[in-house]
């Protein structure tokens, strides 16, 4: 091999450098301009991708020396990014349910009796996931968004019926008790039908079974809690929310009446 000198002539490379043969990588991997080592893998049978990602992060934090760090790419990066948006997505789902119910009931307090049933469903989902030794991965988070509508559905059956009974002249407590007693059977029937329909996901086998286990177990646990625990508290939530709403409405009506009276007094002054 020849190189060009400062005078423009070609000189052999051995005249200006010592050449040694050695071995090296054919390709130097880089990630975000940093030298990197690319690892490919997948979760073991019976484990979800979220569990695999969490295990890799724990091992990297415990074993990587200073100056080294772990970064995700491809599907793993998309899963981690999507998991960070779960809280916003869950909050948006709850907000949509609240706005729809506020428009349906034409009240701002009564929808809270329905929304307060959602935490019971979330508790049941996490309890069932923990009992089976599963991980709170992206599939469970999708099931939580689904549970917002399912738990609200059970509460709506009671709150809607109780509101109609209260309009007929019964007190809040009597209306709530009658609604809970009359709507309990339809709630149990529809909820158990849904649970039995999702049961194959929780007991599935084969490729991708871990993801189906997460979403199936979470939804089943959430529905059972929303059916057999939240139903006991929904009548109480209805009584509280409707009584608070009536107090605010009465207070607003009294203030409006006082403003009308003061306006009439100013328009008809005394002699």
Concise overview:
This protein is mainly alpha-helical and 271 residues long. Helices cover 68% and strands 4% of the residues.
Can you give keywords for this protein?
9 helices; Multidrug efflux transporter AcrB transmembrane fold; single chain; two-stranded antiparallel ribbon; two-stranded antiparallel sheet; elongated; 271 residues; mainly alpha; 4 strands
What does this structure look like?
The structure is a single chain. With 271 residues, this protein is mainly α. The protein has a domain at 92-247: Multidrug efflux transporter AcrB transmembrane fold. 68% of the residues lie in helices and 4% in strands. It has 9 helices and 4 strands; from the N terminus they run ββββααααααααα. It has helices at residues 49-63, 74-84, 86-105, 111-115, 118-131, 138-167, 172-202, 209-228, 230-267; strands spanning 2-4, 10-12, 30-31, 34-35. The strands form 2 sheets. A two-stranded antiparallel ribbon has the order 1-2. Strand 3 (30-31) and strand 4 (34-35) form a beta hairpin. Helix 3 (86-105) runs parallel beside helix 6, helix 5 (118-131) crosses helix 8 (209-228) and helix 6 (138-167) crosses helix 9 (230-267).
């Amino acid at each position: 091999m020849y190189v060009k000198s400062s005078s423009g002539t070609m000189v052999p490379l051995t005249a200006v450098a010592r050449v040694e043969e050695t071995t090296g990588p054919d390709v130097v991997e880089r990630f975000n301009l940093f030298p990197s080592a690319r690892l490919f893998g997948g979760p073991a049978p019976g484990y979800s991708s979220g569990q695999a990602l969490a295990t890799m992060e724990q091992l990297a934090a415990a074993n990587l020396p200073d100056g080294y760090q772990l970064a995700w790419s491809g599907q793993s990066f998309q899963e981690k990014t999507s998991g960070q948006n779960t809280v916003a997505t869950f909050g948006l789902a709850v907000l949509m349910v609240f706005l729809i119910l506020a428009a349906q009931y034409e009240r701002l307090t009564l929808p809270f009796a329905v929304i307060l049933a959602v935490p019971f469903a979330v508790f049941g989902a996490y309890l069932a996931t923990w009992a089976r030794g599963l991980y709170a991965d992206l599939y469970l988070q999708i099931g939580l968004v689904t549970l917002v509508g399912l738990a609200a559905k059970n509460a709506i059956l009671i709150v809607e019926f109780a509101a109609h009974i209260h309009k007929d002249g019964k007190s809040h407590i009597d209306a709530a008790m009658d609604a809970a007693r009359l709507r309990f059977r339809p709630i149990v029937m529809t909820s158990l039908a849904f649970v039995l329909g999702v049961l194959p996901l929780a007991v599935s086998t084969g490729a991708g079974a871990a993801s189906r286990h997460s979403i199936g177990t979470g939804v089943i646990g959430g529905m059972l809690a929303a059916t057999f625990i939240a139903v006991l508290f929904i009548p109480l939530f209805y009584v509280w929310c409707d009584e608070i709403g009536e107090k605010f409405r009465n207070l607003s009506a009294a203030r409006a009446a006082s403003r009308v009276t003061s306006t009439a007094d100013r328009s008809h002054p005394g002699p």
